[in-house]
Amino acid sequence: MYDKTVAINLDSKCNASCDHCCFACSPTSTMRMQKEYIRELVNEFAINKTIHVISFTGGEIFLDYPFLKELMEIIKPYKKQVTLISNGFWGISKNKVQEYFKDMSLLNVVALTISHDEYHAPFVKTSSIKRILNYSRKYPDIKVSLNMAVTKDKMSNYILEELDDSILGVKITKFPLISVGAAKKRIDQKNIHKFYNLNDENSLNCPGYDIVYHHDGEIYPCCSPAIFETKITLREENNQNYERTVEMLNSNLLLFIIRKEGFKWFIDILKDNNKIEEFEIPYEYSSICGVCGSLFNTTEKINYFYPYMEKYYYENITV
Hints:
By secondary structure, the protein is an alpha/beta fold. It is built from 12 helices and 10 strands.
């Protein structure tokens, strides 16, 4: 359930500047929330009895490891589960691998997701990832998985060969790129897998929600890379507490219709009014999240649906 898990994108700074990065992170990126605000958030989440899992991602969260450790120490007394996402650059150091796993074990980290593929390889040595995966066997309570972003020309098969037997027993997920962030400019669209099209009604449903506090200061209803380029935000004020954020998610009519009717409801409106091309909706796509990004990436587009949403409200929702 979305009200049991919350994620925080701590920072846009990263040791890498991958061509496919959904946030266009880099060593020179400076976008981030203030540390004191992040501390306040983590305290609030730790105290909240409905939240079971707190996730941290970036950017690269291990670049400022003392701060990451401080946040996990805040959480520890409340026995929440912690999950982390990293590109594993720190695997180059045997000492850091040993230190970080020892800390993670003590600080309730239950899952570590490593992002590594042909796009990360120029910045992070595959041997570093291999060291992390091998050493993780000493800590079976920390579920380590490997996420790989792939395109038709970069399927990262040689990466798996280089990782050799270190990947045995490790969950590996290859997922197709979505054309967002740096990928819009740097990745040839012909190389992006496109499994679905607008006539595939079964592909027009939202995969689900997770509340995400992003480093741009906004609060988003899911963790898809495409959502961060939309104008769908759950923030209405700076000092908004978590309970109000959940209320915003539950009461947002746009999100309700997405949940109830799927994206077909919006697509049909555009088709009926010959607006598909104007809204730049892709006919073929690798993920419905890309369609969501095209539907709602401007305030004007969202406003276009307001009269239809108002009609839907009065016809389908009992007050």
